[in-house]
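Hi all, a correction to my earlier message: I attached the wrong file for DUF3021 domain-containing protein. Here's the right sequence:
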Amino acid sequence: MKVIGHMISGAVIGITIGFMMALVFSVLNQTATFMPSTPEFVARFSNNLMATIVSAGLWALMGIVFDVTSYLIFEKSQWSITHQTIVHFIVTYACFTPLAIIADWFPVQHYFLSYTLEFVIIYVMMWFISMQIAKAKVRRLNQLLHENKS
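and the right structure:
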């Protein structure tokens, strides 16, 4: 049941983030109409409304990927932070990348390597921050244990 809740919240968050990003890019590119994705993506559809509907579906799926995988993977407390991060990276990369390609967010031939590198860098940063937080918690717990012994 919790997975369904995460699917719903992931879809809402994905649509919200996707819409806001598309809105910002439309404003920055000074387009005459709202562009839900790249001009190449929008050109595949008979009108802008259809492109927006399909984009919303893709944004929802993207949100679901991140929300559900985060719930399923990071709730496994018996796994180390490194194990959780690697598994989450592999699953989200494998699920998110095809959605980003379908949305025409980058031409596969030219930007796939830089996209992959950015994805790796983001996960290394997430892992590092998670490790620092865990170390701080351990230090605090050790400090509390030491204080209780005294």
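Sorry for the mix-up. Helices lie at 2-28, 39-43, 48-74, 81-102, 108-149.
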